[in-house]
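Let's sit down with a protein and look at its sequence and fold side by side. Which protein we use is up to you, so please pick one and set it down. Label the sequence line and the structure token line clearly, so we can match residues to local backbone shapes. Go ahead whenever you are ready, and we will take it from there:

***
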Amino acid sequence: MECQKENLNRIVSAIEAVFPTLFDVYRTAIIAYTVIQRNRRKSDYHLPLLHI
């Protein structure tokens, strides 16, 4: 029983170690996507000027 408890604690520790990292990755991806979308919108406004 003590061995199972030890294993469970290890698993929980591993999950706690991984999840903040995943959260950071997702947050960074969302920020990057938002910045790219903003830049695209800005460049779309300039496209008609290039075609004249």
User: Anything to note?
Assistant: The chain has one helix and no strands.
